[in-house]
Amino acid sequence: MDPSACAKGVLYGVSVGPGDPELLTLKAVRVIGECPVVAVPDIGSGRQTAYSIVRSLLEGKRVIDCSTPMSRDRARAAESYDRIADDICAVLDAGESVAYATLGDASVYSTFSYIRDRVAGRGYATEVVPGVTSFCASAAKLGVSLCDGAERLVVEPGTAAGGGFSPDATRVYLKSGSRLEKLRADLAERGELDDASMVSDCGLPTEAVFPRFAEADLSQGASYFSTVIVKRRGRR
Question: Domain 134-235 maps to which CATH number in 1.10.510.10, 3.30.950.10, 3.40.640.10, 3.30.499.10?
């Protein structure tokens, strides 16, 4: 969508991939370059995440801090999303477009969806720029195919560990973090631990790759950005 076609600016949800700046798409780089304002969710957080991925593209840009609380309190989260939407809409009203940098792909467990719904609900134009997901990048690091032929792929948040599962499908658990110990115990109980692999902080300086999830050292805690892939060894 051409921002010049609208009197007001356009909100772009720009997917920036899991961590490696080289996984930015050409369109992501172009859209960020064309937008005078860039919104990032993690200024000052100390994490090498969305902000660091696009940092080299921010010269001359105005940057909006869109930090949100890591909380399961829905009311608190909604209040934060409302505030961010207010800040972005104020920029759009001035005729400037905003590129909201979001990790992975904006359509997969992304905070951007909550922001987009609020902004679009107020009548502003929005557009999503797709990107590389963490689980696709993790599969590449592990050298495994996620699904072949008629195989199914199930993607779940780490909080789903221990719930219902599909033993005949490749399963991906995202953002597993504090749930990794429970997930590993559940997989062991079901006799699937030998089929599981893990990548933490994919594409970041702290990246760790474990072809066998059973051998991952979880004694010092685990990164929130941990992806576990469960696929029968015979199907690899």
Answer: 3.30.950.10
